[in-house]
Amino acid sequence: MKRTAIALLALLALTLGAGAASAQDTPRAGGVIKAAMIGEPPSLDLHWTTAVIVQQITWHIYETLYTYDKSLNPVPLLAESHAVADGGRRYTITLRKNVKFHNGKEMTSADVVPSLQRWGKMSTTGKLLWKGVEAIEAKDPYTVVIHLKEPSGSLLYGLGSPNNGAAIYPKEVIAAAGEGQIKEFIGTGPYRFVEHKPDRHIKVARFKEYAARTDAPDGGFGGKRVAYADEILFIPVPDEAVRLAGVETGEYHFAQQIKADQYERVKGTPVLEPGVVKPYGWITAVPNHKQGLMANKKVRQAFLAALDMDPIMAAGIGNKAFYRIDGALFYPEQTAFHSQSGVTGYNQKSPAKARALLKEAGYKGEPVRWITTKEYDWMYNTSLVAKQQMEAAGFTVDLQVLDWATLVQRRNKPELYDIFSTGFTLGADPALATSVQCNWPGWWCQEEKERILGEMLRETDPKKRKAQIERLQAVFYEDVGRIKFGDYFQFSVTRKELRGFHNAPFLYFWNAWLAK
Amino acid sequence: MLVYVVRRLLAVIPVMLVVATVSFILIRLAPGDPASVIAGPYASGDDIARLQRSLGLDQALPVQLVKWWGRLARGDLGDSIFLRRPVLEAIFERMEPTLLLTAWSMLVAVAVGVPAGVISARYHNTTVDQSLMAFALIGLSIPNFLLGLLMILFFGVWLGWLPVAGYVPLEGGLWLNLRSLIMPSLALGLVQSALIARITRSSMLDVLREQYILAGRSKGLSERVVIYKHALKNAIIPTLTVIGITFALLVGGAVVIETVFNIPGLGRLIISAVLRRDYPVVQGVVLLIALTYTAINLLVDLAYLAIDPRIRFR
To answer: Would you say B78 and A36 are in contact if contact means Cβ atoms under 8 Å apart?
Structure first.
């Protein structure tokens, strides 16, 4: 009798245990996901800004016609399908039906056309693409036709870009904004905007009428998106130590941009889950091609020759799991575009060669003005080590430490600096990547490079694009367009109860749920 | 008395005009501009220029300054560039946490500082005095953000008694509100209490050497009556001045503590406004702080009257 009772109890315990385990592994609706973010978004209008945090928050609210799959190639999101005709010059995009905006209205081509026009006029990527757009028209409520001047290999990548993305807003919102920023934050996304209390939180809540795609999530950003959490709070927590402490005590479920040297500690804390966001970006020094010492190619080549990237990246990031020594312009994860061909001048570690080049250039020890910031400590730390290496090769370096707002203003003035520190976050389309644009601080404008970029914009065959990238890389290293130190990855920390969350290069919380 | 108050109030106007102008010029002298911050790191120079035009920042500085005076005269502090609302509204939204934080910290500072000073003076040159003053020295030397971070580690992470950061508004419940302010008020208040303790002690020591204290003692008054009734009342005037100054220090400290504890108050408002060059907000908050500080000074001067009948203002 007693034995039976024990057996029964054991059985009960087992069932309960199994039940609990499976309950934790099946997605569960409800709860509020609290995400500790590094700060406040400067705007909530995705067309207006390239700030990463704006994309991270607002793309839960707004959606684009396309998005990226696991290998960062475009796949439809609000679009159903598209047909290309007229030798690649006409894109006929069919929209999905019954997709509702958060104001209850159905999304149609009447919203898509003004949204894309505004994006083409305002956003940095949009403007680049719109140079090649002849006209855009709404053929019927569910069909949009884009007429191009030339075939484009970048159009769908651009339309799918999360950063500064081609968000589809209702036409009324666009009309009300005029030349300014949008005043109402309405999209078609799985979460709708509820409130923004500055320095407190941005609250989004599940959009009950969300029209999810029916195809399964593809491991990237495509496929079905489900809002499991009732709400998401994006909480600005500027202090890194407080972000980490908060996720440890359960105040937040997610903390972004934690220093890599905390990795071991987080790994040893049972309630926490360390996450590596890979790939994330490069760490870069941008020489000023327009004016000053770095306008001389020999001086730039000397700069590149002097550098030993390992100690620079180690100083910048610390933990080896969070950086990679790779000189290629695109990431190994972008299988279609990654190549080592043409990567000739990376990581030379040759002060002697640098010295010789400086002599050829007639350099007489004039100070190289390098502007950097401590607001991103990896920028300051990498510049500090690079400065020492440059000095060992005969450079005189005047490292000027500024706050970020000053740096981003000064770098637009060619007379004020020779080098500035920055990072380039992941861009999916090689022809649209900021790292190779001429119309951007540093002004790397070079005939051969512009020609390759022009070809790349038009090229639709991925194999041919890869060959173009290899040519581009050769020019990049010969002309020293920028100095790439290496790839860096971000460290984010989540609590164990946040399930189904992916540490993707573009942060998102749909398809993630809270187990309890 | 009334004439004095009116005269002091009238004197506020030129002070405010100077503060308004200086804050306008100072924030614009700082390099960096809001347009580059809004546009984000990958924007081109043209995009930034377009934003500057749409924000009215391409106008000449004197033109912008005159416009700012004009708005001020109408009691309008302008609109925040980033918060999409009038500056005054943004300030009012942030008043609650900062007022409560300052009030609690002030309470901590006075409740700890004054008794510590009095006890130190009473037990002058004893172990009690020396250890209290040693604590005060530590308190004066430790930066409040460090104290805050240590408290977060100890009470928040290790013991788990208090939330590590964040703020629960009053409408979320009195207890939860208080709970979210305990650590920040202690971090801010304890540091200030050190200053108050030292001032109270030295002023008490001066008073205790006065002859009327000796007279009091010799006529057989209890030590308690001598200290609290006769000595403290006369010794408190310098302390009162310091409490007034402490208020200014608290507002300064709130800027730091609100950032550490993630409290959405005026301190956070001004810090983020400075970092992203939200000119109207910086100007508005500086003006408000100056106004409050002037008002506190006036109140302190009036409090002298109430405490010490020998003081007369003309």
So the answer is: no
Summary mean pLDDT of chain B: 85
pLDDT in tens, A98-150: 999 999 999 999 999 999 999 999 998 898 899 999 999 999 999 999 999 99
- Percentage above 70 pLDDT, chain B: 99
Helix (H) or strand (E) holding A127: helix A124-130
Give pLDDT, residue A156: 94
A394-to-A101, A359, A387 alpha-carbon distances in Å:
61, 10, 11
Tell me what pLDDT residue A101 has: 97
If you write DSSP's letter for every residue of A361-397 in order, what string do you get? HT---PEEEEEEESSSHHHHHHHHHHHHHHHHTT-EE
Residue found under tokens 């069932």: A15
Structure tokens at B275: 């970092």
| B259 Cβ under 8 Å from any chain A Cβ | yes
Give the pLDDT of residue B313.
Answer: 63
Reduced to 3 states, what is the DSSP secondary structure of residue A417?
coil
Distances (CA, A) of B21 to A101, B58, B271, B290: 46, 19, 20, 13
Q: Which residues contact A5 (CB under 8 A, 6 or more apart)?
A: none
In A69-220, DSSP assigns E strands to: 74-76, 79-85, 90-95, 133-140, 143-148, 191-197, 201-206
Rounded to the nearest angstrom, the minimum Cα separation between B263 and chain A is 8
pLDDT at B242: 83
To test the contact with chain B by mutation, choose from A34, A163, A199 the residue with the greatest count of B C-beta atoms within 10 A, namely A199
Is the Cβ pair B45, A441 closer than 8 Å?
yes
Q: Which of B88, B152, B140, B99 is nearest to B116 (CA)?
A: B140
Interface pTM, i.e. ipTM: 0.76
DSSP assignment of A14-53, as one string?
A: HHHHHHHHHHHHS-----EEEEEESS--S-S-TTT---HH
Mean pLDDT, residues A55-67 = 96
Q: Chain A residues with CB inside 8 Å of B41's CB?
A: 50-52, 408, 422-423
pLDDT digits (tens, 9 = 90+) for A3-41: 445 444 444 444 444 444 444 578 999 999 999 999 889
A52 to chain B, any CB pair closer than 8 A? The answer is: yes
Sheet of A79-85, strands arranged across: A79-85, A90-95, A143-148, A133-140
Going by their DSSP bridges, the two strands A513-514 and A498-499 should be labelled as antiparallel
Q: Give the C-alpha separation, A146 to A112, whole Å.
A: 11
Residues from chain B contacting residue A251 (CB–CB below 8 Å): 163-166
Return the residue matching tokens 């009215």. Answer: B56
Q: Using N-to-C axis directions, what is the helix angle for A462-479 and A297-306, rounded to 10°?
A: 100
Percent share of chain A, pLDDT over 70? 95
Paired tokens of A473: 């890389």
* CB-based contact A110:A53 (threshold 8 Å): no
Residues in B closer than 8 angstroms to A410, CB to CB, are 31-32
CB under 8 A, 24+ apart: contacts of B22-31: B23/B282, B23/B283, B23/B286, B23/B287, B24/B64, B24/B65, B24/B68, B24/B279, B24/B283, B25/B65, B27/B274, B27/B277, B27/B279, B27/B282, B27/B283, B28/B61, B28/B279, B30/A406, B30/B274, B30/B277, B31/A402, B31/A406, B31/A409, B31/A410
Cβ separation A51–B166 shorter than 8 A: no
- What would the pLDDT profile of B63-96 be if each residue is shown by its tens digit? 888 888 888 888 888 888 888 789 988 888 888 8
Q: How far apart are CA A89 and CA A149, in angstroms?
A: 6
